[in-house]
């Protein structure tokens, strides 16, 4: 026997408690009406617009607690804010929400932006952006929602914060791939402190030196601006007598650098690499690595350009669009 809408809604609300363990403060946004009176009341909430133009129109009607829903931030001709979130299964696109609201309220609403809203550990989080309308001002949205629902914890995550979080996650995942302790310390030191960033960079996974696997590794960092200029830097990482990491830049090339062989034999470190069609060799006694002079094939103009990037590293370290592609395999 087919369930009535009322029976379906009662079962839905029961699942909210049992399956998702939502607290009452969050449950209100996901529950469905269980009586005709409640249905009428909710329809009124949806349609009503506050008389005071300084009071925003806020509607959070969310769908499945296991996935996010979309919201749109709008203003009417009186400059009243509208924050409207509807179930994604009902309104698949941000423009669907906007069109629904224009018809429902009979107003030419100006779209300020959109994003996503989700339930997370007993709070609501607004984040992301709309492909149709761009990013809403998350802090403004959070403030409006917090005023409308003062008992509900609401957090906002800007695109910049999302970008930083994603970058950190990719970095940490790459570190987890590296088993060798020296290699892991070298990677962290290069990426966090030593590398010259140009906005479109790539790292190659560190490689232990043959004959000193537990104490010495090398890695390549490829700095690229994405268009016309880039360099490869070869770094050596090794533990000193105090078991502290030393990171040393040992080669810098205008063209891609490929390490063919690395080893320690009879107390001599040897690294063979190719760049610009040439075979090169670095050779240095292990007991005097601090005296190793780095190789470079950059001309004077390229060195000037490189110094410009060195002197403006804060731009690339703080720029959300600055990319580092982590953990490519050495070749």
Helix content: 25-40%
What's the pLDDT, averaged over the residues? 90
For this structure, the quaternary state is: single chain
Low-confidence segments, given as residue ranges, are: none
Structural class by secondary-structure content: alpha+beta
- How many structural domains can be distinguished in the coordinates? 2
Main sheet specs: 7 strands, mixed
Overall 3D shape: elongated
Question: How widely separated are the two ends?
Answer: 65 Å
Helix segment count? 9
Radius of gyration: 29 Å
Total E-strand runs: 16
Q: What are the secondary-structure elements, in order, as H or E?
A: HHHEEEHEEHEHHEEEEEEEEEHHE
What percentage of amino acids are in beta strands?
Answer: 25-35%
How does this model look, in words?
The chain has helices at residues 5-18, 24-27, 36-47, 94-105, 138-148, 159-177, 181-194, 300-310, 313-318; strands at 57-60, 69-75, 81-86, 110-120, 123-127, 154-156, 200-204, 207-208, 216-224, 230-239, 245-253, 257-265, 268-275, 278-285, 295-296, 323-328. The protein is an alpha+beta fold. The chain has two domains: 5-42 and 52-160, Janus/Ocnus (Pyruvoyl-Dependent Histidine Decarboxylase, Chain B); 164-328, no CATH class. The chain is elongated and about 90 Å long.
Short description:
It holds the Pfam family Ocnus. By secondary structure, the protein is an alpha+beta fold.
């Amino acid at each position: 026997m087919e369930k009535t809408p009322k029976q379906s809604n009662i079962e839905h609300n029961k699942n909210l408690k049992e399956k998702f363990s939502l607290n009452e403060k969050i449950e209100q946004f996901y529950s469905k009406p269980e009586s005709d009176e409640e249905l009428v009341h909710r329809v009124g909430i949806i349609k009503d617009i506050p008389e005071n133009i300084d009071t925003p129109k806020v509607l959070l009607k969310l769908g499945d607690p296991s996935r996010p829903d979309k919201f749109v931030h709008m203003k009417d001709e009186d400059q009243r804010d509208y924050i409207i979130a509807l179930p994604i299964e009902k309104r698949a696109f941000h423009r669907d929400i906007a069109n629904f609201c224009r018809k429902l309220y009979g107003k030419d609403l100006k779209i300020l932006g959109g994003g996503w809203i989700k339930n997370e550990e007993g709070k609501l989080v607004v984040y992301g952006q709309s492909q149709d309308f761009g990013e809403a001002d998350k802090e403004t949205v959070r403030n409006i929602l917090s005023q409308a629902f003062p008992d509900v914890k609401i957090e906002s995550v800007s695109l910049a914060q999302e970008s930083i979080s994603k970058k950190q996650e990719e970095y940490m995942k790459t570190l987890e791939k590296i088993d060798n302790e020296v290699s892991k310390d070298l990677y962290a030191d290069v990426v966090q402190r030593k590398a010259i960033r140009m906005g479109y960079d790539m790292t190659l996974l560190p490689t232990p030196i043959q004959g000193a696997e537990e104490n010495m590794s090398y890695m390549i960092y490829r700095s690229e601006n994405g268009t016309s200029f880039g360099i490869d830097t070869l770094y050596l990482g090794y533990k000193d007598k105090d078991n502290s990491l030393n990171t040393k830049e040992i080669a810098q090339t205008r063209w891609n650098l490929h390490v063919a062989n690395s080893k320690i034999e009879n107390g001599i470190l040897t690294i063979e690499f190719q760049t610009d069609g040439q075979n090169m060799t670095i050779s240095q006694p292990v007991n005097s690595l601090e005296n190793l002079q780095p190789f470079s094939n950059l001309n004077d103009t390229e060195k000037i350009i490189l110094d410009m990037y060195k002197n403006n590293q804060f731009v690339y370290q703080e720029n959300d669009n600055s990319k580092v592609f982590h953990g490519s395999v050495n070749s």
